[in-house]
Amino acid sequence: MTSTQLSELLGRASSLRDLSARGSAAAAALTDGTHGGAAHPTYLHEEEDWVFFIPPWDVTWPAGMYARAEAARIPDLASLIGRVAEASARVDALVPQARHAAPGVLTRLFAGARTERARQAAQQVDAELRAVTPAAARLFDQLAVLSVAEERQRQGVSLIDGPAHLTAAAREALATALCSHIGQPRELTIEPFDPTPHVGVLERARLLAEAPGGEPVLRARAEKLLDQLVSQRVDALLEQLPVSALRQATADRLRIEGLEPAGLTSVAWVAEAPRGRLTQLPGIGERTAERLHAAAETLRREAAAAEPRAIGTEPTAAARELLRVVAQFAGADTLEPEERARRRRLVDYVQLIPDPARTSEWIVARTGDTLFTRLTEDLAWGAAHTALLDPPAPVSTHEATWDDYLARPAYYQGLLATLLADGDGEDGHDLDARTLEAIRELRLDRSLLNDDVHLRGYQSFGARFAVVRSKIILGDEMGLGKTVQALAAAAHIAAVDGVERTRILVLCPASVVVNWRREASKFTRLPVYVAHGTTKHDAVDAWQGTGGICILTFDGARTMDIAAPEVVIVDEAHMIKNPQARRSKAARTLIDAAPHALLMTGTPLENRVEEFATLVSYVDPELLADGEWTSVEFRRQIAPVYLRRNQSDVLDELPGVTETTDWIDLTEADAAHYRDAVASGNWMAIRRAPMTTPSAMPAKLERILEIVDEAAEAGRTVVIFTYFLPVIERLEQELGERVLGTITGALAPEARQAAVDKLSGAAPGSVLLSQISAGGTGLNMQAASVVIIVEPQVKPSIEAQALARVNRMGQTRSVLAHRLIADDTADERMLEMLGRKERIFDAFARESEAAAVADARDVSEGRLAEEIIAAERARLGLDQASR
């Protein structure tokens, strides 16, 4: 073998070695588990729906991603690498010996044997190289393909254009990176998104987001001020909280004996004290000081969580500034809830697509269609309504705003709730898609509403629900503004059809006629007629000629000849639950004749499910025509005509209710008087006996006087509800000049409202007395903040309605509710009956519950009286004594 031939052979061996090294490196890279990529997208997320926005410059692609995609298309790549590596190893073992296969003359003369072995090795090398040449050539070509793929990845990854297997690899890598945000593998639809057509809309939204008087800036300012107010109120509370409360905040037995002598008399003082000061006190070491601070912080967090995010009653600097922010929002906000929601989302999209003009090669990845469809619709809406994205003109406020707030707290608190709300307050999750879409698309015509009427999101939804469905039951919990929802729906219908052609009839109890007259005039520009008293026929004649609103009692509907109205509103609709009653038949006739009907009741179910079903049959006779229903099936079946929201769902700003059951131990005189009442068998005498003890101060009355005195010290006014006139007379006698007025069934509606009006601005400790049957419905008493219910009532709804007279929109203080229960009397037995009825209501009518009730039955007052009297006679031994 010549030296030239040997040199060529060794070169081929070296090339094989290099190729084997490249193959091994490629194999290692292809099997490396640390090649994950990363993406830093912005995204929308609601429940299970995700939409990711990915600018291409913000993705770190996995190293070797394209190369792995190409390698997956070469089924024998691993085999080729292995064969070449094995051949290269054998060749490398032979090369040291084969290097001597072309010796010089002397070597050939004196080392012939060595030379021969070298020649044999060289021949073996050549044979190995020849044998592996096809595999090596194929491996060389495939490694070139991988190199091209790597260079292509360095130049830029495309999810859309290019070879299908490479875009598939990129999509899979991106999906893997995005699913790390979701927390689980999900299928993603990945497609291009060109933001450039939306540059104008997004730029307007960005300017709106930064505008001093724009909603985003006002909302951020309001949130900051609310945080300040909550912090101030929590500080004030902790300053009043004794240090003994620290033990209640932790299971540890903290040593607090040395705190008060050292001047640390409240939780606030302990929270602010440096740890070094605490450890100077007797018996307090580092560990105890740490626990004291931890307990104080726990109390602070709990107090902050319980504190309502509301303006409040104290005109602090933060509260006044917050009110100015709300007033600015009121002057600038003219949108319907759906429009407001769209505009807010457009502002949010600015953060999703912060630089839309930088490139048109954005990528969107999504798990479903809902959110992305909404985004594209919002962008199209913004392009069609650019004026609604313009920053508002400055709105001036003045110092009198605080006085206006105190006069109209519900208006301002509603505005604040709207400003802060993330959503639009919609409900209707059980509605079919077509109905829900129709409700969302409907824009209420507000031309017949007064300018200062502000509908909160859930109220607008309720009004639109009534318009779209034509006949419904509005079952919102008491205090949520059913009246304004009904009037808004009626005003819309009148505005669309013409006032003269729209006769709106309000059917209600006589006790709330005055309230309806005030509310209708306060909220609408429609003519209002009251068909009550001697002029009722004249009022009905005028209304039938001009259209507008006519307010009529149930008795009036029964006795008068009323032409078919266009809209019927039935307030306290549970009063027509008995289909055989004459007033129910009269109301049913008017409901059937009207194209639109809205039945209002916060207690559609008081005793039996059948009563609720009767109300449903008034608005849709076929809905429950057949079959018996479980509670879940019942609620699902009536969803198209029944809408209910609870205070806890939509009125976050209500200060809250502290309900206390005051158990009263009867005095000896009380017990003797009660025993006599039970012996008489007179049910009403038994119920009122703990308050009517003759010639002695009843224990219940003593407790009432204590509560009134406490209210006076706290700067509060009081409403006392009782069923009985003799109890009212006893209260009038004992409370004297502190009684502002008394509401009974004999009092004319105008006088009832006048008595309620006295609560506003009344001296602390002032009391309004009311028969619960006369003042427990239809009147707004939120100027008071202490409620006393003297005795339990026969229906849970009666007490709930009475409490809702005070705890409703416009209430600025926490409400203290006291239920007085005479221990071991009929009061206690009634509580058991009330609890049974409440469970029935929860199962069938309260949307937030899902319990099934299989044994719902009627508990009438007569039966309740019989059961309790029998039980009390047995307990007191009266049956034995009579034998």
UniProtKB/TrEMBL annotation:
SMART domains in alphabetical order: DEXDc (SM00487), HELICc (SM00490)
Keywords assigned by UniProt, alphabetized: ATP-binding, Helicase, Hydrolase, Nucleotide-binding
GO molecular function annotation: ATP binding; helicase activity; hydrolase activity
Pfam assignment, any one: SNF2-rel_dom
Domain Helicase C-terminal span(s) in chain numbering: 700-852
InterPro entries recorded: DNA_repair_Rad51/TF_NusA_a-hlx, Helicase_ATP-bd, Helicase_C-like, P-loop_NTPase, SNF2-like_sf, SNF2/RAD54-like_C, SNF2_N
Helicase ATP-binding domain location: 463-622
Protein name: DEAD/DEAH box helicase
Organism: Corynebacterium doosanense CAU 212 = DSM 45436
Taxonomic path: Bacteria, Bacillati, Actinomycetota, Actinomycetes, Mycobacteriales
